[in-house]
Amino acid sequence: MAHWDEIDEIAGKFLKKILLRDEKDSNRSTPEEDHALTGKYENWDSLVKESEKALKYDADKAFRKLRHLKYQRRQWITYSSVAASIIVMISLFFLQEKPQIPTLTKIEPGNKKATLILSDGTSRDIRESREVIQVKDSKLQIDSSGLIVTPDSIPAKQGKIEYHTLSVPRGGEYNLTLSDGTQVWLNTESELHFRTHFDKHNRMVSCKGEVYFDVSHNPQAPFVVKLTQGEVTVLGTEFCTSDYNTDKPQVTLVEGKVRFNTQNGDSVVLTPSQHLVYDAITNQLSIQKVDTRQYTAWKDNLFCFEDETLEDIMSTLSRWYNIEIDFESDELKQRHFSGTIEKYAKIESFLELFETGTNIKFDIYGHKIIIRQLNK
How many domains does the chain contain in total? Predict the structure, then answer.
């Protein structure tokens, strides 16, 4: 029978081979794996100290229970006790806190989803399901194309005006057709408050977030979009509103003509390819000529960034991919970039393009991205 000292020596060599790796071993792990296992231990002596702690485990007490099992030979019990001590030592070592390493959680792009909240307060999740909901004076038809509002041929008698809400969560998008034929696209984290039946002289909706409108032409009934700060009035046109920052609503005109009215009574008329930003705090209006695709491409399943700050770019991506962004420094937020990405593409491929030729690194930890600057 082997002497305890011999067993202890064999166990020590065995553990040292597992945890510190023999460099001649062709099957050894990667340096990163080795670091994850042995990063807390500068040398074998410190490992031994940890092992001594583990060996305080009362192995004899645990193995007295084995006497009721079929192994009766004393030699086997002795070997089992020694083996148990080694196993306990290994187990306690691996249960030690490990350094955080990037996880492999897959980041998925957003998809078509929304919540429809009816005027009576009831709500339901709608995606690409097929359903028809009968309300007071209209039908709400849900199918793969989105939500379509179809008014009854004979509207109900005039009574209390009922509004419904279409709410798109983070990581979603949705579109609908209003009762007058106006097409509406809602970007992620956006909301539209609408009637199912407009009257003859008034077509009004209210929205939050980012919404694109292709308004059905009707000179007798102006189409009005109410924002958190101000409103847009149109006769028939295509435009996009954005008020993720409620103190700075934006309007981008693609076709036609719109008038933007501030809450204090000021107004300005926009012509095609103009982009308006209204600072509700200072009551300042700013208008500039732009390539409208930069502000509307999301409707066509693209993100177009033109000389935008990294902070604004990552804010857009965080909403669509439903991820958290953390900058290592404020200086990184102000770096400017240009680029185009398909909305349904993998975010990793896009981030690799940003890393190319720069000293910026994007570390992905589950659904969190940490942006840091590499040492030059």
Answer: 3
Which residue type, as a one-letter code, is found at position 245? N
**In Å, what is the CA distance from 37 to each residue of 86, 93, 299?**
17, 9, 48
pLDDT value at 155 more than 80: no
The enclosing H or E element of 17 equals: helix 4-20
Q: What's the domain range around 40? A: 4-94
Pairing of strands 172-177, 146-151: parallel
Are β-strands 336-342 and 231-234 bridged in parallel, bridged antiparallel, or unpaired? Answer: unpaired
Say which CATH number the domain at 346 has. Answer: 3.55.50.30
- List Cα–Cα distances, 195 to 8, 176, 325, in angstroms: 81, 12, 37
Pairing relationship of beta strands 111-112 and 172-177 according to DSSP bridges: parallel
Residue 194's nearest CA partner among 179, 173, 212 is 179
Q: What percent of the chain has pLDDT over 70?
A: 70
Per-residue confidence (pLDDT) for residue 104, from 0 to 100: 52
| Range 5-15 burial, b when 16+ CB lie within 10 A, else e | eebeeebeeeb
Strand 183-186 with 210-214, pairing: antiparallel
pTM of the model: 0.70
